[in-house]
Prior knowledge:
2 copies of one chain form a homodimer.
Chain A: E1 5-11, H1 22-37, E2 47-50, H2 54-58, H3 64-69, E3 79-83, H4 88-101, E4 107-114, H5 121-128, H6 134-144, H7 151-170, H8 174-188, H9 202-207, E5 210-212, E6 215-216, E7 226-233, H10 235-240, E8 250-258, H11 269-282, E9 291-293, H12 299-308, H13 317-322, H14 339-342, H15 347-363, E10 376-386, E11 389-400
Parallel strand pairs in A: 2-3, 2-4, 9-10
Antiparallel strand pairs in A: 1-7, 4-7, 5-6, 8-11, 10-11
Helix pairs in contact in A: 4-15, 6-7, 8-12
Amino acid sequence: MRDVFVAGVGMSQFGKQLPKGLKQLAAEAVLPALADAGAVASSLEAVYGGNAVAGLITGQEMIRTQVALRPLGIEGVPVFNVENACASSASAFHLAWQSVACGVHDVVLAIGLEKMTHRDKAVSFGAVGTAVDLEQRDEMAAALGAGDDSSRSFFMDIYAGMTKEYMERSGATQADMAAVVVKAHRHAALNPKAQYRDEVSLDEVMNSREIAWPLTLLMCAPIGDGAAAAVLASEEGMARLAGATDRPRVRVLASVIRSGTALGSGRAKSAVLTAQSAFERAGVAPSDIDCAEVHDATAPAELFIYEDLGFAAPGEAPRLLASGATALGGSMPVNTSGGLLCKGHPIGATGIAQIVETTWQLRGEAGARQVPGARLALTHNGGGWLDEDSAAMAVHIFERI
Amino acid sequence: MRDVFVAGVGMSQFGKQLPKGLKQLAAEAVLPALADAGAVASSLEAVYGGNAVAGLITGQEMIRTQVALRPLGIEGVPVFNVENACASSASAFHLAWQSVACGVHDVVLAIGLEKMTHRDKAVSFGAVGTAVDLEQRDEMAAALGAGDDSSRSFFMDIYAGMTKEYMERSGATQADMAAVVVKAHRHAALNPKAQYRDEVSLDEVMNSREIAWPLTLLMCAPIGDGAAAAVLASEEGMARLAGATDRPRVRVLASVIRSGTALGSGRAKSAVLTAQSAFERAGVAPSDIDCAEVHDATAPAELFIYEDLGFAAPGEAPRLLASGATALGGSMPVNTSGGLLCKGHPIGATGIAQIVETTWQLRGEAGARQVPGARLALTHNGGGWLDEDSAAMAVHIFERI
């Protein structure tokens, strides 16, 4: 396997942007990513595009990446449209990485694209709700007492159930969940691309509308639109590009994807196994990580993930959070971008948006939210839900060199 | 790059199968493919699934491959959902090939899955009609005088326009197009998996309902459901599998994908360029090919493709057809399966279904439609339409060893 570098990154504004279509969102991510890499459209040898629900929102299906990128003159190369629910663009990045690592290509583009807003909110929620086995959905909804009227409450009911179980087991409180949100808003306030840039208090989070106890509205990632792009290159590819040479390079240390598994039981076993593989391939330990972007689709998820990734022992995540270690200024800030909760979660774009943030951190280009001296960064991105585990789980580890 | 072998293949019945869901169709393709390869679910190290419109038909989106394969115990490995319109599963096969060729995996599954039938036929046609840039579609429809009421007539109007232009240029007649259909039905009559197994006369084709002159109903591929699967393996993977060792091996000589391009102008330039790359990588010439499966979404397309692939000089395709060379018994039979026209065209399954047929041919397992001594086979699969060219074009070349 050859070394693969993140040669350039870019992302659009995230947020509810009803008038913007996929072409505009793509341009806002790809043009900065190309410029950042010192590349032009014709530098690209292949394109891997991740998208999840824009087809259901806009009607454009099957060749979404080609359609979105054609106005930028990106054409005549292999283009693949990759879907894996909320892990769509981490999956696209993985396939792009694989093609460079294996020597098939020297310079490729990975892009995550998403359009979720629709005049009718029920269309947006309905689209998100297709990331499960529809045949299981009714059974699950009935078991959760969730009714079957809203896809959103269905997913949120899954998270609520896991959270109640976690609270019983660990002694965590609803306030612990709210503290994740306070941190996320504090980080996002420093991120010009974030959907929400206001700070909130613990009380505001606790008192916001209840979605499914113990989850309140502010504990749930919002609907939004956005795109994020990364140019990946081999050593040879880097030499060909005109990107800045006086800055640190970002190298992919591990790129691991797996789907959920029947091995053992319990929530999100795949996250544990995927992270273990990634740490093993990277040759680093959880304690070596300087900053991370993780899949906080709800606030409690961030706590679960601390434990899945080995950042905290079972039941200890609230203590890790309370220590300040995972906030800016701490020893291992998590979700400096504001995370899915506040930067936003245009689902097909999220995986690469996480990689954009960690790239900026590793290069020292994260501005007011910079983690000083960050050298190792991790991204964790999960997608879909099947048999009580993620249908797709992606963990990436990056190194500044 | 390592050698990659098609270790096992399988396909479901093709046709209008309204009661069958993706899980059943998947099982009908995957179980025979695993058995053929001497593999079990746990032999697979990754899965690449191609699908195009089943999401719009069934509501199941984002994690379709995981959902369809979970009942077969295929889990805990990377699973990628790949979309590229009618070239979705050729794209999935290409990515699977890449991962084995590059040494990432030794045994992987590529599957093409499709569900097109819907109680409301307009839903099926509407789904197919999303394989273009929707913003271009209205303009194109207006330019073609096609109206905007039916996605089917829109695509068929594109083909009709190309056919009229071809007829003017080459002197070909409507009867030449009809002759493609007569051949396709004759071949499909020998294929138990085919959607249509009846022979038809030239008159029946000419006199069937006009769709868009010169195209009649029988000149257009039907709507249908189906799945096709292939197990790919490296030399090491083959040694690990329990597949029959006393039969010829099928090796991938070339796997090339590209999207359409602005290079030059004119219809389906990408087919010419993709085929040239494939022949170059395989180190063989068009005249070396013993049998081929090509993307005859309409009857005239088969004639165009003869010329795009270099099987016939420009304008000479009708003569090649009339000579009998591309019919069973000729020197290079094309679409021995019955092609998209008669075997059927469940669009996300088509690319791999072509590979299933060529694998059977190369192994001498094609029964009544066997091409004696076939040693080199080609598949040609195109998807989507953008700026007057295919959005995705795939050419594969296989060799018996």
